[in-house]
Amino acid sequence: MFKFILSLGLLIFLFSSVAVAKNQMSDKELKKSLSYPSKGIIIKVKEGKFNLNSLFLMQNKFGIKIERKINSLDNNLYLAQTLANKSMFDVLKKLNTSPMIEIAEPNYVVSLVDNGKFNVVNVNENQMIRAAELHNQDAYASPYADAIPNDPMFNKLWGLQNLGNNAPADESTEGPSLMKGVAGADIDALRAWEITKGDRKIKIASIDTGVDYNHPDLKANMWVNTAELNGKPSVDDDGNGYIDDIYGYDFASKDGDPMDEHNHGTHTVGTIAAVHNNGIGVAGVMANASIVAIRFLDANGSGTLEAAIEAIDYATKLNVDIMSNSWGGGGFTQTLKDAIDRAKDKGIVFVAAAGNSSSDNDSSPQYPATYDCANIVSVAAHNVNDALSSFSCYGKRTVHVVSPGEAILSTVRSGQYATYSGTSMATPHMSGIVGLLLSKEGRMNHDVLRDRLLATSVPVPAYKSKVKSKGRINAYNVLTNTRPPNTDPNPSDWIRMNLDAPFESAHPYADNANIEKVITVPNAKFVRVLVKKYELEANYDFLKVIDNKTGAVVESITNTGENYVSEYIQGDTVKIQMTSDVSITKWGFIIEAVEYVRK
Q1: What is the model's pLDDT at position 120?
Q2: What total of structural domains would you count in the chain?
Q3: What's 87's domain CATH number?
Q4: Which residues are catalytic?
């Protein structure tokens, strides 16, 4: 049976290679990298070795045709195509053995994952009235009520204020259908807004499918290049090398109009900085910001590595404060890393989605999120139940923090709104929080900023082994530099308790299995599960460890293993639940004991 994991909103490279650099890649590795789509070759010539004229003279020798110089802060990058009678493999081998070439790598195709339906909200008068009524109910009261904006859909923005019952499950003209969640599992926006709601001086580049800069919930927070706005059409009025870049630039079509033709970019920007208190729609993490719209993916969500480099360098030229990047995946490319490093050298923060393939970035890197660049903040996604989203990538060493990324309501094109899920949606929450911090304190050293984001995160057992911070982001803590204490129990304090009888599945288990057991250890402060053996279909069948009091999934165990020690729950009662889908069944699991720490 065909299966897929629903993980909307993340852009991924359609390749998994590494940069083709001299003496670093075997023939086998090179051939594997070339099995993925590309549109030509990116060439970096060595400084001072030769100019464009000499490169043209070398075309036949290398088996290429120079298409153009790439508009980059690196003046030595060129885009080339292989000649019709030449293989990409032979051309790259020849280029990377030339003493004149520093880097030659495929100009890979990048693409937006769209493997499910986006839930578009058709806004009309009845819905807005109904949403406003819900917004004013006592259930949405808060001790920080003065900070709540009057935007009528705010009541569904659980990532900003999670009430345990306000995450959108579906939308209709009759009002929202809501999902049950864990109250307080949010970014703590209301308390943060009592300190700052942002500043128009903070420039945030959305590098994506563009932005609907005419959206009524976004227009007031768009960056505007006044020299181009008030200048002559088809003229580079400000002399920055880009014609008519009023709101940003389009590197997919190579023109000055970054209007979104897809929705994805507009959605992420709404989470960053949808206008507050305008009586319509939603509210962003920042009430005040300057969003630079940078389009490098077309209407189909497709683009190239070369366009991504140009987009990043354009934002660097503008000296933006933050780049928000809800795209990534695939393998290492040196030219892209170099572009991010150029942004780093200008003091620009590069926020990146960790990935949507449910995998460990420590062992299977996702790029650009996993580049070793000091300015990168890599973001995983959590859901309304304070659990890592099933689609989210993770990494104890390489993913920094978790933020809301599932069932996120935000803006889309033509003045509309929609609910999306993905680490693409977690990323703009983080970009907005960094924007709030820079609004309050200005730019800071990258290491200092990243340490602050990690150290101020709220510790959550479910994320302890998943991300470097061991927790989820909290905007108030970030702004006040409040660092929660380490609550991990002492390893020597754990006490084993054997179960009266083993808790186990059938061997093999059935399709659509759903079995559970609740275990209480009186007077325990922490409880964890000892799984003697498990064999489950990887990424489809799960053994879940759940905090029975809150309903939070502390850990979802899949694949195979023996003598596995789960993450712990805080409290004395743990629920263990095993679920399976259809088509493939395996041996199952057996649990004979738990461990606990006394109060």
Answers
A1: 54
A2: 4
A3: 3.30.70
A4: 208, 264, 424
